Amino acid sequence: MRIFSVTALLLACTLLITLPSPSAPSPSPSPSPTQACHSLTFRDNQAYATCNDLLRLNSYLYWNYYPANQTADIAFRKPETSTSNWIAWALNPGGQMMAGPQALVAYQDSDGNMVAYATPVSGTPTMKPGNLSFGVSNLRAEYSGGEMIIYATLQQDSTLLSTNHVWQEGPVRGGSPRMHDLSEDNMLSFGTLNFASGTVTSPSSTGGGINSKALLKNVHGILNAIGWGILMPIGAILARCLKVFKSVRLFNSVHPAWYDLHRACQIIAFFLVSPDGESVSALIRKPNPNHKYRIYWTIYHHSLGYAIIILSIFQGFKIMNGHNYWKRTYAGIIIALGAVAMLLEIFTWLVVIRRKKFEATNTQEIGANGGHEVNDASTNV
């Protein structure tokens, strides 16, 4: 019987801050008056000595810095924002980008009330309220005319006068913020600022090194998704459903076709996630079929393989929590693979049942002929 080939589909497969000051504002040098932030006003007629057009996510940052008590009144402004989105602005003394920022988050709840709170983002981001490494007061947010604004007063020290800052936006679902997109604007929405001098920089003006890091991180994630999430399940399906065709060979191989296809998928998957290939040796060094320990290796091999596939799928969905595009894409791939596996499973059982009936018929014919005549029909179903 002809065997249907299975084609492996490879799909290429990184936040989140107005006590009245006893001293008068000490205006900082402002950026060029041509910036759009200078033309925007606030409903309460609040005035800020310094403002800057942030180059990513169409955002603006305003502040007054008071050197006498080391505080700063800030306003983070995000036009073109819907009520189903959250916005955030953060200081990150520990480094650039999204690792470890001290963030201020705002969004509109289901009752139409604005929610604003502080959250330290370290380890696995939870976006839950918490205390920051510096003081925050007068924290509030407003939404009007498609524009969301976060207001706050920051208690600073020498380490925060000139530091890194990041800003972000993402969807709100189930009453809480979810994962933001991984577009270029989202990945590059960070920079440095000096509250005293009014100097603000961004990746576009500091070079492309961060671009390269983001690219490498994305490539790493894509390769892992292809290896663990696609090739491993395909390899398991091939081994499970094509094993009945033990006599079929590829390229004059001494092994059955299912074995070569299965091993090729698993080895490629391991090389994608572990380029040194050290883990591949575990696949190659196995006992001979008649070895007394072969049964234990088989149990280990099957258990580990299925565990890796299940864990990679669940962990992948956990990492992509709230990130709809990738979640839907990968879910579609898994559903497609599951459908193929089910069809092949049915096809395999039909082959097995037909083969058993065929063998039973041959046995009866041989018995009826006294064992002297052998049916010449091929058993390679």
From TrEMBL:
Statement: the UniProt record of this protein carries the keyword Iron:
yes
Which GO terms of the molecular function aspect are on file?
A: metal ion binding
Q: Per UniProt, which keywords does this protein have?
A: Electron transport, Iron, Membrane, Metal-binding, Signal, Transmembrane, Transmembrane helix, Transport
Q: Enumerate the InterPro entries for this protein.
A: AIR12_DOMON, Cyt_b561/ferric_Rdtase_TM, DOMON_domain, UCP037471
Question: Required co-factor?
Answer: heme b
Note how many cofactor molecules are bound and how: Binds 2 heme b groups non-covalently.
Q: What GO cellular component entries does it have?
A: membrane
Q: What is this protein called?
A: Cytochrome b561 and DOMON domain-containing protein
Domain DOMON positions: 57-170
